[in-house]
Amino acid sequence: MSTIRFITTDVFTGVRFGGNQLAVIPDATGIPEELLLPIAREFAFSETTFVYPPTETGHTRRVRIFTPGGEVPFAGHPTIGTAVVLAATGDIPLTDGETRIVLGENVGPVPVVIRDVHAGGGWAQLSAAKMPEIGPPVPSRGVLARIIGLNPDDVVSTAERPQAVSCGLPFLIVPLASVAAVSRSRVNVERWEETLVNAWASMIWVYAADPDGGERHYRARMYAPGISVPEDPATGSAAVTFAGYLAARAPTRDGTLAWTIDQGVEMGRPSRLEIEADKVDGAVTALRVGGSAMLVSEGTMRI
User: Fold this and answer.
1) Quick one: pLDDT at residue 159?
2) What CATH number does residue 44 fall under?
3) Domain residues for 112?
4) What share of the chain is helix, strand, coil (3-state, %, to 5)?
5) 16 with 33: CB under 8 angstroms?
6) How many domains would you assign to the chain?
7) Average pLDDT per run of 10 along the chain, which is 303 residues long?
8) How far apart are CA 118 and CA 155, in angstroms?
9) Do 77 and 143 belong together in one domain?
10) CB 209 within 8 Å of CB 51
11) In this structure, are 34 and 153 located in the same domain?
12) Most Cβ neighbours (<10 Å): which of 14, 23, 44, 152?
């Protein structure tokens, strides 16, 4: 029997016991492949990361990401949380001001900027490895409303309309008429299985403008029953995809656009995600998502 070291962190929050929980295995070298998924299921967080030495020149670490349902090529809160853990524990060297690293994930190299590091956490921002890919047509407003337990009028269908988009992981982005509708939404798993279980984008991101938080602020929720995540309190991969969705609809042709998102409120784990998009001549050229993470616990697991 051997042991592995783990650290847990709350991501996209500046306080412990908020945000999205993440388990990080800072040195996964030597863990048998067949134990990676059982270890992720043991933590039962939405994701667990396994960190390895880099396999490509210019990369800082190799990172594999597992949900309780299996491995995923890319995810936002695991990337942010892993970067902050490695920085706060001294596993990677830091420079004055900002530290720039590259994490090799199955989606490709993911650049990360880290700053404001202290013993208890820090702040990090990732850049999407892929620009938005638009998926096939999505179900009608009425069908989507039934899947998420709402009325058809709650689903917006204007310039901001339901659309399947991916920046490494596909999400079905569904705009809603109000924050109240976001709070009322619930996935009907039976209807989801009838319609989306085999869809190009089966994970659902619902959102609405939240003027109480400012002009460029949103409330969102994310449902992913297909990967054993009934609801996620903070989803960086969805948020960075959402940045591309918003940027494509913005009239700005050149410059940087920025928004904030509150997620996880209904779960009792409020999270704040900061997203940005760069545009040049009307085209989206870069997407970023960032936020704070706080270290919560450290220990060993027998394997």
Assistant:
1) 84
2) 3.10.310.10
3) 3-126+292-302
4) 20, 40, 35
5) no
6) 2
7) 95 96 97 98 96 97 96 95 98 94 96 96 96 97 97 93 96 98 97 97 98 94 94 96 97 98 97 98 98 98 95
8) 42
9) no
10) no
11) no
12) 23
DSSP states of 196-253: TTTSS--EEEEEEE-GGG-TTEEEEEEEEGGGTEEEES--HHHHHHHHHHHHHHSS--
Domain co-membership, 58 together with 148: no
pLDDT at position 158: 86
- Is the separation of the CB atoms in 85 and 26 below 8 Å? yes
The residues that are catalytic are 47
The reply to whether 280 and 151 lie within a common domain is: yes
Residue 287, both tokens: 């997407």
pTM, rounded to two decimals: 0.94
> Would you say the C-alpha torsion 107, 113, 118, 120 has a positive or negative sign?
negative
Q: Helix (H, G, I), strand (E, B), or coil: what is residue 76?
A: helix
Residues 285 and 156 grouped into a single domain: yes
| Residues 199 and 155 occupy one common structural domain | yes
